[in-house]
Amino acid sequence: MQKSVLSKYDLKQLTNEALKLLKKDRSREVLILRFGLDGSRMTLEKIGQRYHITRERVRQIEKAALGKLKNAKLGEKEEYQALFSIVTKEGILSAKSAEELFGEQNFNNIRLLLNLSSDIEEISEDDHIRACFISNDYSFKDIKKITMKATEILKEHGKPMALDTLTTKIKEILNTEPLNELIEKAIKLSKTIVIDENNVGLAIWPSVNPKSIKDKTHYILIKQGKPLHFSDIAARVKTMSKKSITRQAVHNELIRDERFVLIGRGIYALTDWGYRPGTVTDIITEILTEYRVLHKNDIIQKVLEKREVKQTTIVLNLQNKNKFIRVGKATYSLPEE
């Protein structure tokens, strides 16, 4: 369900209409304060102090007020149906998605309105699960079970895996047939798991959820699959960071971290890709030490596999008679010691 369906309805007006159904002023005020409809949300304790009643009494008033509004069967009205269907049709709606869909300024109204449906349950955020709304078609117990099992599987595997593979393993272990869609939605609610494109990993793993500049740099190069200029890398790191990041800070990490190697003018690659540090002369020496004698074209090809330089640069280096000798037509070797 898209926001456009509800665009003709004023969410604050829907909230006020619902609150008018409560005859007691205090019941209305408790809901307004608990859901932050006039500003910040207020705790049970703060509300209790205002009305000189206990926290438990505030909780009872809130529960009774919500119960009365649910019994009013607001869901039978078109405007409330449109709102409730966002959750009932999707099954799960994270609080973050609701805020993105309707805007932060409308979230408190949305939150109260969704609590007025008997077919929707609000789940509060905890250490493992993000806040969300779920329809009666889904069980929070199942969602919790799926996320816990997914975390266990990933910990045992020790590295990211494809979402499809994880889904299959969860089904095998739980010995049930939950919908793939439910498993994916449950995983997205987990605070300990990250979905990175089609790969899934633990949130503490830099390979899927990089936090530092050097890990973000490593992540970017892996995703690109090719060497990049440090200014390009820095620009990409900036888009991944909330804090201000300078090009020099990124360049410093590229220089310091052994996972990166300079292979051209300002161009960096991953050492895992087979690139090596050193001058072109050093690379040619390394190649001829291994192969003893090679044609110029073969030398050029092998140098380019390790460094990003112009072919003319390689040819010029081969002309260093103190380092290399020509033993045939365009064929080179190392001088005898």
Description:
This protein has 337 residues and is α+β, with helices and mostly antiparallel strands. The chain is 53% helix and 12% strand. The protein has a 3-stranded antiparallel sheet with strand order 1-3-2. A 3-stranded antiparallel sheet has the order 4-6-5. A hairpin with an 8-residue loop joins strand 2 and strand 3. Helix 2 crosses helix 4 and helix 8 crosses helix 10. The longest helix has 18 residues. The protein is elongated. The model has no long low-confidence stretch (mean pLDDT 91).
Strand content: 5-15%
Q: Which regions are unreliable across 5 or more consecutive residues at pLDDT < 50?
A: none
CATH architecture name of the largest domain: Orthogonal Bundle
- N-end to C-end Cα span: 77 Å
- Please write the string of helix (H) and strand (E) elements: HHHHHEHHEEHEHHEEHEHHEEHEHHEE
Q: Strand order, biggest sheet? A: 1-3-2
Q: How big is the Rg?
A: 31 Å
Main beta sheet: 3 strands, antiparallel
Total helices: the number is: 16
How many distinct folded domains? 4
Instruction: Kindly report the name of the CATH homologous superfamily of the largest domain.
Output: Winged helix-like DNA-binding domain superfamily/Winged helix DNA-binding domain
Q: Tally the beta strands.
A: 12
Globally, the shape reads elongated
The first-level CATH class of the largest domain is given as Mainly Alpha
Might you state the CATH topology name of the largest domain? Answer: Arc Repressor Mutant, subunit A
Structural class: alpha+beta
The share of residues in helices is 40-55%
Give the overall average pLDDT: 91
